[in-house]
Design a protein that fits this description.
Elements lengths: L3 H20 L3 H36 L1 E4 L8 E4 L6 H11 L5 E5 L15 E6 L13 E6 L8 E8 L3 E10 L2 E15 L4 E6 L5 H9 L2
Parallel strand pairs: 2-3, 2-6
Antiparallel strand pairs: 1-8, 3-4, 4-5, 6-7, 7-8, 8-9
Length: 218
């Protein structure tokens, strides 16, 4: 995307080239001055091409849904309390019931211990059987307290990364420390500022938690 500031810079360079042509008689001097003044523009073009190439390589290697091991089909999943809480658990149940019957998750209550509320704020979420036939907005959920998260369940987690050059989110599906699948979205920036924000997105943004949950459902 070419923004107004970039067009202004281009126009100034054109004006500068015309001024140099009139100001200097020697063709060698004109070439030297043009090279000096054009060097930032050459640098921008070079970095643009490099970042675009890097984006295409990273997108092909990491972007989108990657299944490393085909998971077995189950009807229960666990959400990493560092990155997900009650709204995600209820949303997944609403969208995937009856194939998905239970989600273990943190309810979002901070207890001040620095452990994301995992002391006394973990629950198994299920749909109230009396409300499963109702529209999604009218359904009720049952929250069963957990002392600890259950071992051996598939876990959905998230690894965000932000820098001046990239905004990246990798959502993973794992069990007992083994990685089964990942869904990665990222945006590479060539220019990342308020005046000129130019870059490339790897795949259209989707709900990665749903993508990964669908892999385990019957």
């Amino acid at each position: 995307m070419i923004t107004i500031p970039l067009l202004i810079i281009f126009a100034l360079y054109i004006a500068l080239m015309l001024w140099i042509r009139k100001r200097f008689d020697s063709s060698l001097a004109r070439r030297a001055v043009v090279l000096v003044f054009a060097s930032p523009f050459i640098y921008w073009i070079g970095t643009y091409q490099y970042m675009h190439y890097r984006h295409e390589q990273d997108c092909a290697r990491e972007g989108g849904l990657k299944v490393f091991v085909q998971p077995e089909k189950v009807d229960r999943i666990q959400l990493d309390p560092k990155h997900f809480n009650e709204p995600t658990a209820e949303w997944l149940l609403n969208r995937n019931y009856p194939n998905l019957k239970a989600v273990e998750a943190w309810d979002g209550t901070y207890d001040g211990t620095g452990t994301y509320g995992r002391n006394g704020h973990l629950f198994t979420y299920t749909l109230d059987p009396a409300t499963t036939s109702l529209p999604e907005k009218e359904r009720k959920f049952i929250k069963t307290p957990l002392t600890n998260l259950t071992d051996g369940l598939y876990v959905i987690s998230k690894v965000p990364k932000w820098s001046h050059e990239i905004s990246k989110t990798t959502t993973t599906l794992s069990r007992n420390g083994r990685l089964y699948a990942s869904a990665t979205w990222f945006y590479h920036y060539w220019s990342n500022n308020q005046a000129m924000n130019i870059g490339w997105q790897c795949f259209e943004r989707v709900d990665e938690t749903q993508q990964l949950t669908s892999l385990i459902l019957k």
